[in-house]
Amino acid sequence: MSFENSNNNNSSNSIGNSKSNDTVEKEKERLRFIISQYFQQITKGCGEKISHHSEYCCHNPNFQKILDPTQAAMKSLKLGKDYQEKYLCSYLYSSTAEKLIITNRYMKTLVDLSSNAKNYSNIVDFIVNYFSTPSSIITSFKSEKKQDYDDETYFEGLDINDINQIFSLLTGLNNKKVDESLKSATRLLSNNLKYNSVSYKEKEQLKPLVFLLANDFIHDLDNRTILSNVFVAFSLLQDPMKDVIIKWYNSLSKEYFIKTIINYEQFISVRIMSDEVDLHKDPAIKGACSALQLLSKINDLKRYVPFTDFYNDAINEDLDLFKDFNQANHSFTYANFPCVLNTITKGQYLQIEHALSQNNHRTDFGRLGLTSALDFLIFKIRRESIITDTLDRIAELRHGKNEFKKELKVHFIGEEGIDEGGVKREFFQLIVRRIFDPEYGMFKYNNETRCFWFNPDSEDLTEFQLIGILLGLALYNNIILDVHFPLVIFKKLLNLPLSLEDIESLDPTLFSSLMNVKTTTEEVEYWSLYFSVDYESFGQTKTFNLKKDGKDIPVTNENREEYLQLYVDYLLNKSISSQFKAFYIGFKLVCDSTILNILKPEELSNLVCGVEDLNFDELELFATYEGGYTKDDTTIKNFWKVLHSLSDEDKKRFLTFVTGGDRVPYGGLGKMEFTITKTADSDRLPSAHTCFNTLILPAYPGIDKLRDLLTKAITHYEGFGLK
């Protein structure tokens, strides 16, 4: 399964065969449309109001009408196959009739005359003649203003504001025949685009597409059939034509950009919920997703809205993930448009691939369900030497990296118990706690961000590779790790370009200082800054030159951009290059899936580390009870009263007490298994099995005692990550 990097591709991604069955069928459908147009021309005439008709049209005096339907069908077939749309009258726009320039002022005059006469037949005829073909849109709707750039009001001479005013004027008549003619004409136009956009090669040919896309009229839900044709046409555009649309999208104001996203998202949701389409086959939804993906690329740079605004709930709820995953190598997958997929859906893609991979790395008997030790990656570990034993085990496996693709099982030597998931979770909790202990020296802790960063002084690269492998194994085996990394680490894992803004998640104070250098109107040369960085290493102050002889080159307003770029590269790359390289290699030994390419750094972080969620109403709703407790027991009711009354900090302490960390799987507490088990000894403190998310709660006789002992338990438990 191959997923192109969604973060580095300006056009829509492509997965599967270069010419799928779906594409071939669309080409056949387009050819049938062209042939039907030729058949009408040579038997009845085109019906176009143009002065120079095609040489293959009944309206051309030099053409002899073909009366025999069979002969006409054969001639239409030949014209369609040999010439495509070349001789269709709808593509000939050199006539005098089409040189009429249609503006809102012109239409207002026509409307006034018709209104005075109380006869709108002229308007109906006008709409039919000038709103229904690409040629009439291209030649007749021309702006009276001239500008050298396209934006939300202007595209290649098309005055978008004027067009919307025209439609408002016509729909404001509240005349049924006028409304019907508008719908009919724009439906014909959209149908034409649907079948012919694949052949567009000139920017001018896109004017009818923008005429509709930017038109408030077709974004009315009653007209979504028209919009569906437009989105199909959009999806069939060749990449050079999509690049033109991208450029136009890029010119939109923030307000119009957001409005466009809302319109497209609304179309998808309503079509799924109201039109009962097959999500996996509907070309209109695919086209809308293609357009949203392009908008998402622009938003990545302009940051008009959070990337989560592109998520489409209807798609994520209706999508058959297994069907979509299995057809990815054959035709189409929604993973081509990751902007509309939420983190849960993307995480499920990974889980499916990882489960299949684990199964593929089993023995023949293991695939049949008859598993043995050979089917698993087994870590036999002593608690007292957990890091040493894990390093030794990884060293054994390093040259046979396929071993990491097996499902992980952990056994603590000298202890009973089968690893059904709980032992594995406890293993990760223990080893992560040890490795990230500041005294261990591998990582530095930032009190402001509560995040860890690579220690440049730590030179044991084997252990950095270990933590990379552990991160990969946790993701591969669907385990949440209680690690606190700045977002920039996940950007680096996804090979995304870094910028000055990425320092904020690492060191907000330093980021603020650098931004001051970037934005100040003062003369920076008086700040005594040079192209060098002083840093502490083993108790000594050292200097790193950002460029040759940098310590002697002052920073000025003229060269500060270069200084900031070099500083970012030093801090986020060069200063930790050997440590991160080892960490990255370790991670990729386990997780090299191309599905990672569809993830945002924030989404990868959420899948690896979980999310902060203190919605304990969800926790209560999905909690289960054992040992004799039910949700109606007095102790349980008291417990939830106490828990809901805790401060946010104490709620985090409770989560750490019960689960080993204060973060939960993406999707929130409702996605986390949580069990409360009864014990009769009411003088004991509550306890927990963190590897099973289980709270051992004594049957306390009153709420005051429960509050007192629960508070003591979570306060005196020093969980990792609580500083």
UniProtKB/TrEMBL annotation:
GO terms for molecular function: ubiquitin protein ligase activity. Residues 1-22 are annotated as: Disordered. Its EC number is 2.3.2.26. The lineage of its organism: Eukaryota, Amoebozoa, Evosea, Eumycetozoa, Dictyostelia. Residues 1-21 have a biased composition (Low complexity). This is HECT-type E3 ubiquitin transferase. Keywords: Transferase, Ubl conjugation pathway. The active site is at C691. Residues 400-723 form the HECT domain. InterPro entries: AZUL, AZUL_sf, E3A/B/C-like, HECT_dom, Hect_E3_ubiquitin_ligase. GO terms for biological process: protein polyubiquitination. It catalyses: S-ubiquitinyl-[E2 ubiquitin-conjugating enzyme]-L-cysteine + [acceptor protein]-L-lysine = [E2 ubiquitin-conjugating enzyme]-L-cysteine + N(6)-ubiquitinyl-[acceptor protein]-L-lysine. Signal peptide: none annotated. SMART domains: HECTc (SM00119). It is an enzyme of class 2 (transferase). It comes from the Eukaryota.
